[in-house]
Specification:
The chain is mostly helical. The protein is about 75% helix and about 0% strand. It has one domain. Helix 3 runs antiparallel to helix 7. It comes from Phaeobacter gallaeciensis.
């Protein structure tokens, strides 16, 4: 169990690290969010290919697998667009509307059980997202893109539960990376910037952080029950806040701190109820 927890902490730190590299690419080096999203999927495909079982390739003929990958591609593109102008902590807090939407969609479309307490916790998390985004009170377009990214990702999570019976985690991971990269290739290639050492290093870090973080997540889930590890997913918010302060000197304001606390608290409590 200790190894699984340690892997989760590392994984939940690596994923925001990949997004931090993406923010540097789009904000400091004027790279296109399309390029960042495409390169992440393309390089991620190459990284996971040696670990991909043969059973993954027939899944590429299933339209539902393509639909799921398209949702992920949209989520990553919109979060990179949001990171162009917004702090990491704010983007991740707004992005965490995804699990809230997934809870609602899973209850409606997949007929998964929904309790009154968990529903109240989801609404509390949604209130936290509203505190961060503050629609109608000087909200920026960037945070709107973060919410849109979270909506795509929440739909992706629901689709993942819908299709979980089709193959192993590694097989489905390969299909989402390969298909999303393929879909974004025409636009991504046109947006390739001049590959200076800094841009090349950040591009590799963006892809490696995301790919390795998600791979370690899968490894952790093979060593401990997902119900026990689920609360640690919210460590991403803490890691994103720390990285935003250390790299960009961005500290959340009082409203954002309150929103982060609501999202984190409701998410952890909801996850612990599943144990």
């Amino acid at each position: 169990m200790f190894q699984a927890v340690l892997l989760m902490f590392v994984a939940m730190s690596l994923i925001p690290t990949g997004d931090m590299a993406g923010k540097l690419l789009t904000g400091s080096y004027n790279a296109s969010p399309l390029f960042v999203a495409w390169s992440r999927f393309a390089l991620g495909t190459l990284m996971i290919l040696p670990f991909t079982p043969r059973a993954a390739f027939p899944l590429l003929l299933n339209w539902r697998v393509w639909f799921r990958a398209l949702l992920l591609a949209g989520g990553i593109f919109f979060i990179q667009t949001a990171l162009q102008t917004e702090p990491l902590a704010k983007v991740f807090a707004a992005f965490f509307i995804g699990p809230i939407l997934s809870y609602a969609l899973s209850a409606i479309l997949l007929r998964e059980p929904a309790t009154l307490l968990r529903s109240v916790l989801m609404l509390t998390g949604f209130a936290g997202v509203l505190l961060v985004v503050r629609p109608g009170f000087g909200a920026s377009p960037g945070l709107g893109f973060a919410v849109l990214a979270g909506c795509f990702y929440g739909s992706f999570l629901t689709a993942s539960r819908w299709l979980s019976h089709l193959g192993s985690a590694r097989a489905l991971s390969f299909t989402q990376l390969f298909i999303a990269g393929l879909i974004l290739t025409p636009a991504g290639i046109l947006q390739i910037p001049t590959l200076t050492p800094a841009i090349t290093s950040l591009t590799l870090l963006s892809a490696l952080g995301s790919m390795l973080g998600n791979l370690l997540l899968l490894v952790a889930y093979t060593r401990a029950p997902s119900t026990k590890l689920a609360p640690l997913v919210y460590f991403q918010l803490i890691a994103a806040t720390g990285l935003g302060w250390a790299v960009f000197n961005d500290l959340p304001d009082a409203y954002t701190w309150a929103g982060l606390a609501l999202v984190l608290g409701s998410g952890l409590t909801s996850a612990l109820l599943r144990r």
